[in-house]
Amino acid sequence: MKIVTVALIISFSSLAALSQGNIDSLRREILSVKADVENINLNLERSKSKFQRGIFVATLGYSITIAGGLMLGRENDDLGQVLLVTGGATGGIGTYMLVDAFKYLGRTRRSKK
Length: 113
Known about the structure:
By secondary structure, the protein is mainly α.
């Protein structure tokens, strides 16, 4: 309890010692951090939606590929070959979408110095 009281006294005394310019600087920094957090949340949401679409497309494509593989060597051999190619292409596109979703995670609002 004494430690908390001492910490509060030190905090309030340091706040009282701040000049108006320091308070304005602190406010600008807080607003900057808040904008950064909002930007991070926006990028995470973009990444999440693109990632989910990529998972769906890749799963669909590779499921079609498996179905086509199961049809090979039977009476629907031609259909199986078409499904293999179509499913492989769709799965590849889905995988590209998955990888592409990560580009939003490295983006920042600030320019590099």
